[in-house]
Each structure stands twice: as C-alpha cells, then as structure tokens.
Amino acid sequence: MRDWTLRLVLCALLGAACATCPPRCECSEAAHTVKCVGKDLRSVPSGIPGYTRNLFITGNQISRIGPESFKGLDNVTNLSLSNNRISEVESHTFSGLRSLRSLDLSNNQLAVIHPEAFSVQNQTLRELNLSRALYNYSSVSDLATSLRWSSLGSLRGLDLSHNSLVLLPPRLFSRLSGLRRLQLSNASLAALPNSSLAGLERLEELDLSLNALRTLSAEGLRELDSLPPQAALRLGGNPFACACGAEAFAAWLNGSRGRVRDAEGLACAFPAAMRNASVLAAAGALTPGCRRRAAGADLALQTSYVFLGVVLGFVGLVFLFVLYLNRKGIKKRVYDLRDACREVWEGYHYRFEADSDPRLSQVSTSADA
Predict the structure, then answer these.
(1) Residue 321 shares a structural domain with residue 234
(2) Closest by CA position to 146, among listed 180, 169, 126, 127
(3) Within 13 Å, how many C-alpha atoms sit on residue 263's CB side?
(4) pLDDT value at position 66?
(5) Before 271, cis peptide (omega within 30)?
(6) What's the longest Cα–Cα distance across the chain?
(7) Do 208 and 347 have their domain in common?
(8) pLDDT tops 80 at residue 253
(9) C-alpha gyration radius of the chain
(10) Banded model confidence at residue 2, pLDDT cuts 50, 70, 90
(11) Where do the LRRCT domain residues begin and end (predicted)?
C-alpha cells in the first residue's frame, strides 16, 4: 500500500512520464517508443505519451492529417505513417514536432498536399520518404509547390521512388540545397528536362535506375553534368537504345565511368539484335558506324538534290519553249490588256476632273439633258 501511494505521488509529480498508452497501441517508456500498427485507426490517436521519440502509426485507415494530429509531441524524432491510405496533408501538419528528424509517408495515396505541408520548425527534418506515396501527377505538382514553400534546407535524404513522375517539374529541388541522397528509381522517368535537377549543390548519390530512359539528350546530359563531381549515379534497369542518335550519350557514358557506379552492368534493350549487350561495348562501335551511315545518307540526299535540279531545269526549258511558240498571241493579249487598262484609267481620270471642277460638272449635266 505504501509503495502504491509512493508510485501515485511520483506519477503526479512526473506527469507525462506516467502517461497512459492510447487504446490499441503499444507503448514502451524505456525505449521511448509507441506503436499503433494495423489497428484500423481512422485518425491519429490522442493521448500519446510525451516521452515518445519513435512513433509508428502504420497499416491503418487514416485519410487526413493536420496540425491537430501531433500536438504536444515535442520529443518525437522518428515518425512513420506508412501504409495508412492518407490522401491529404494540410499545411503545418508537422510544425509542432520540434525535434522531428525522420518522416516516413510511404505507401499512401497522397492526392492533396498543401503548400506548407512539410514546414518544420528549426529545419530539423533530415529524411523524408515518399516512396509509393503520390496518387497522380496533380499530387506531384502539389509536392513541387510544397518543397519550394517549406523550410527543408537541412534535408539530407529524399525518396521519391516507385511513383509515376514521368517528368520532373522544373526546379523541383531548388530549395533543397543540403540534399545528399535522392532516390528516383522506378519513377517512370522518360527524360531529364532543363532545370529538373537544379539546386542540388551537395548531392552525393542519385538513383535513376529502373526508369524509362532510352537515351539521354544533350539537355539531360547537361543536367547530370550540373551535379557536383562527387555525386554517384545509378542508371541500371533502363531500356537503353544502342542505335544511331545516342552517340552523345555513348560518348558521355564512356567518359563518366567513375561517376556512373553501375556503368559496367548497363545493357541495351533496342534494337532486338543487340538486346542484353553491354552499353559500353556497343557505344565503342556506335559512333563510327553512325558516321558512315550519316555519310551515306548525306550522299543519297545530295544525289536527290541533283536529280531534282535536273527535273526543274527541264521543266523550265519546256516552259520557255512554249512561251516562244506562242509569243505572237501573248504579245497581242498584252497589248489588248494594256489598251483596256488605258481606257478604264482615262474614264476614271475624266470623272475625277468633272467632280473637282463645278463648270465641267455643269457642262456634263447640260450635255446629258
């Protein structure tokens, strides 16, 4: 009885240290961890103990999160909200998490991301996981706005893999100057447009594997070259075309083996005759062969121009010969046309003078009478 009374007194003094665990959750004060996993929750539970540093709310039915969802959780450093079917993240949702360093929103259905959804005080956030989280391309545009508006200059890792990005919005990462690792694998990327990788001044790792890159245009190569020299690249699993038109990419790849960590394993997907062949091996023979083909194409084009010139010259000669044979008739028609034009002009001139001189106008009127 005495121990129980002492415990109650200690709980009253410590308050949050003896806080109860939310229903359907598991709490460990020693590990500073709360887990609410697969409990069919419809919202973030209230009453989460203040000692919590690691908060796992995963595998539930939560559709929306906002600023009221995480009040009083100043000590949370790692927050996992994966696989909850979250579709909307309001502005300043995580602003109250003053110590937040890692945020996992993977495997959700984010359709609406408000402009300041990822604003965190003191720029504490270091890792953001949005793998398999974006519902459609509209949410990609929302994300671009949110990343520009939110204070994420201290973010170190960003995972956007397994999303249907197709094309990266311009300057998507322009405010993430401290980013070190960027995961863009299996994101259906077909190209790297201008300014798509702008602002990544400290990047150390970029994963572009398992996308839809058949080659990299001059614009895309400039984007990769704009990254810091120490940035390691991964390009494996893309359906590269080892055909004419990819000479610039082939030359760039041969000169970038130190940066492209999986360069030796890159394989051709097109044409069928070169499928699974090494891109580096194919690249060595690509440029000379394409030059010969281009030279043959130029010769064929020049031959076509010569033939066209001969045909046009012959048509011109025929036209001049026809004109010569009909020179008398043409001359007569020209004279007739000239006389007709002169008569019309003289009639207009006479009428103009009659209208401008009242006396001629009276003579004309009396003559008509």
Answers:
(1) yes
(2) 169
(3) 19
(4) 96
(5) yes
(6) 142
(7) no
(8) yes
(9) 38
(10) very low
(11) 238-291
Residue 268 shares a structural domain with residue 320: yes
221-235: pLDDT as tens digits = 999 999 999 999 999
Asked if residue 207 lies in contact with residue 234, where contact means CB atoms within 8 angstroms, the answer is yes
Is residue 131 domain-resident? no
Structure tokens at 117: 């959804």
Residues in CB range of 11: below 8 A, 6 or more apart: 17, 18
In the chain, the amino acid numbered 327 is: R
Lowest mean pLDDT among 91-100, 182-191, 248-257: 248-257
* Under 8 Å between Cβ of 179 and 158: yes
Closest CA to 159 of 123, 190, 184, 135: 184
